[in-house]
Amino acid sequence: MTDRAYIPIVVGNKVLNEGSDGVGQSFDPATGVLVAEFARAGAVEVDMAVAAAREAFDNGPWRRMRPFERGRILHRIGELMLQRRDEIARKESIDSGKPLRDSYWEVDCSARFFEFYGGAADKLHGSSIPLGPDWSDWTVKEAIGVSLHIIPWNYPFQLIARGVAPALAAGCAVIIKPSADTPVTAYEFMKICQEAGLPEGLVNLVNGRGSVAGDLLARHKGVDQITFTGSVPTGERVLVAAASHAIPCNMELGGKSPQILFADADLDKSLPIVAGGFLTHCGQVCNAGTRLFVERSIHDRVVDKLHARISAMTLGAGVDDPDMGPLISRAHKNDVERYYDIARKDGELLLGADLPKSASLAEGAFVRPGLVIGANNSTQIAREEIFGPILTVIPFDTAEEAVAGANDSPFGLVAGIHTTNINKALGVGEKLRVGQVWINAFGVGLDVEFPFGGFKLSGFGREKGLEALSAYQQVKNFAIHHPLA
Ligand code: NAD
């Protein structure tokens, strides 16, 4: 992406180069250079997008196709993503700042979502229910209707695929509202959908400000369901908007995920996982493992090793595939740096890698990774989601203490457990109030098959796996009375 991109609104396969809320801009977070401008939707374009999606859902061919035919088109979308892997990954790294290998992962994972749900499209069975003699009863699964997908900036391409693939498999029409910070790859997604042969109006792209286009869409009476991924405060606003017309929502919100490291763990294997858990995409990951509960006998050794590790890291532009790229923006950099002061108030801050020295990166939103020691689990640094590369390390003496600390959080998205003792791993895992438990792992990679979602403030509903499909379906029951005489 050497030339500046222009990202339109796409409604019913029509490209709208102008939006009634003006023009937005997106910057390369590594350099501060303007990389894209985009049309910002207002009420006019929001109405057009909802009308196009409604028409596609109510009268278009998608629901009349046989499910396996829908599945074939979804598979084709996955294939086209993999064919354009290099181009999309590069654009994603420039727009979002993430290292190139993570952008490749986004594209690969997105293709997997379309493969997985393409395969599921003809397996969305109902059930038969025994009512006794003279009765037959069964359920069918019907598409819920027009599904709105509100996307954050941290995984702009992959999070579109995560929600849109199951929605389409279920037979829905879709409206995508990307983050105003990362509009670029959503347009690539639209082009692929069109090339794969999705019917007109089935997928619509509405760029714009969250407070304008996002809010108008969430309140729109033509929308039947919302999948929101983002922060807790915005999620609460979206829930209020959804409540204004009583529609269901999937809420994927924030986290402050614990990792529990026992003294019997194999540190050579565990510490790279612990480090990856809070450093991936500069800590801007909803499930980032940002609280490390470590058994006291190995606390100092673990801190030394982690500090050596973060000190040796390279920081740079995402396209150069450094150990760590920049944050999403200078505004977010200011937010994260505020937590360095909070860390020093709550405990001791050990910083790692130096900032990049190159003049071309002087305006980049880079921050140094950090460890916080001496802060307990009730401090601000241990409780708030930072969305930056900062790990709070907290010692524990017993497994019960580790579990209590891990659960003492407003969030409950994921947890990691590192131990070579399987009883300990499963006993602790059973007691954790989180949506996913990873043992001797933190993430699986291309993990589209199992459900993902949170307890508590981390949200509700599940993405991924077969569970995700239920958000996009209504259950209809048939009962027949058929006495022979
Ligand atoms: P955000 O809440 O600021 O924005 C998310 C989206 O909501 C954007 O598209 C934004 O334009 C839109 N929006 C803003 N105001 C709106 C309104 N009033 N009505 C409708 N839409 C509105 O989040 P962000 O800063 O883009 O992303 C970071 C957050 O996302 C973090 O809290 C992170 O934990 C969370 N996240 C969660 C998951 C998950 O799966 N649980 C995944 C990724 C990110």
Automatic annotation (TrEMBL):
<dbReference type="InterPro" id="IPR016162">
    <property type="entry name" value="Ald_DH_N"/>
</dbReference>
<dbReference type="InterPro" id="IPR016163">
    <property type="entry name" value="Ald_DH_C"/>
</dbReference>
<protein>
    <submittedName>
        <fullName>Aldehyde dehydrogenase (NAD+)/betaine-aldehyde dehydrogenase</fullName>
        <ecNumber>1.2.1.3</ecNumber>
        <ecNumber>1.2.1.8</ecNumber>
    </submittedName>
</protein>
<keyword id="KW-0560">Oxidoreductase</keyword>
<dbReference type="Pfam" id="PF00171">
    <property type="entry name" value="Aldedh"/>
</dbReference>
<feature type="active site">
    <location>
        <position position="252"/>
    </location>
</feature>
<comment type="similarity">
    <text>Belongs to the aldehyde dehydrogenase family.</text>
</comment>
<dbReference type="InterPro" id="IPR016161">
    <property type="entry name" value="Ald_DH/histidinol_DH"/>
</dbReference>
<dbReference type="GO" id="GO:0008802">
    <property type="term" value="F:betaine-aldehyde dehydrogenase (NAD+) activity"/>
</dbReference>
<feature type="domain" description="Aldehyde dehydrogenase">
    <location>
        <begin position="25"/>
        <end position="477"/>
    </location>
</feature>
<dbReference type="InterPro" id="IPR015590">
    <property type="entry name" value="Aldehyde_DH_dom"/>
</dbReference>
<dbReference type="InterPro" id="IPR029510">
    <property type="entry name" value="Ald_DH_CS_GLU"/>
</dbReference>
<dbReference type="InterPro" id="IPR016160">
    <property type="entry name" value="Ald_DH_CS_CYS"/>
</dbReference>
